[in-house]
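Private note to self, pasted from the team thread so I don't lose it. Backbone tokens:
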């Protein structure tokens, strides 16, 4: 007769990392570890992964979390009825620089032209949906509205800036 101990009961689950910040479209692998009442690690049990905010972050059944839109989501790992949690904050990819085109413009007084500003990430990818604020360095020479329309006021030169999330292009 062979006597075997009953399987250990899962008392708690911990997820590593227990909190993280991801840019939109980035992924992170979470790891769930099950513990018995004495703090011993239990292996070989299935994990069920869920998210409380499917619009912000998705989670696969292998624990891979993907950021979908800015916000927060709590990821839950359940092992034999015990649960562990990880808080994931999803943020927009930060603006690294702003490129204004054209870079140099000559217009007559009383005329206007439109400049464009592209917010870009560190890899040089154009970021969409970012707020750009326009300003003229000398409104006696040239004015600019919030759509990038520059109007010549009188002869001279002025720097026009476009700012997005603290980054400035001229």
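Design output:
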């Amino acid at each position: 007769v062979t006597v075997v101990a009953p399987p250990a009961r899962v008392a708690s689950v911990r997820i590593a990392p227990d909190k993280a910040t991801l840019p939109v479209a980035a992924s992170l692998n979470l790891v769930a570890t099950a513990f018995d009442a004495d703090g011993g690690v239990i292996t070989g049990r299935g994990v069920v992964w869920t998210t409380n905010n499917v619009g912000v972050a998705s989670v696969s059944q292998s624990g891979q979390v993907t950021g979908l839109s800015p916000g927060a989501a709590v990821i839950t790992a359940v092992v034999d009825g015990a649960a562990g949690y990880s808080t994931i904050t999803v943020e927009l990819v930060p603006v690294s620089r702003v490129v204004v085109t054209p870079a140099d413009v000559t217009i007559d007084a009383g005329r206007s032209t439109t400049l464009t500003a592209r917010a870009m990430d560190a890899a040089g990818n154009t970021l969409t949906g970012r707020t750009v604020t326009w300003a003229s360095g000398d409104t006696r020479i040239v004015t600019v509205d919030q759509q990038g329309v520059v109007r010549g006021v009188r002869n001279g030169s002025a720097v026009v800036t476009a700012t997005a999330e603290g980054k400035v292009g001229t």
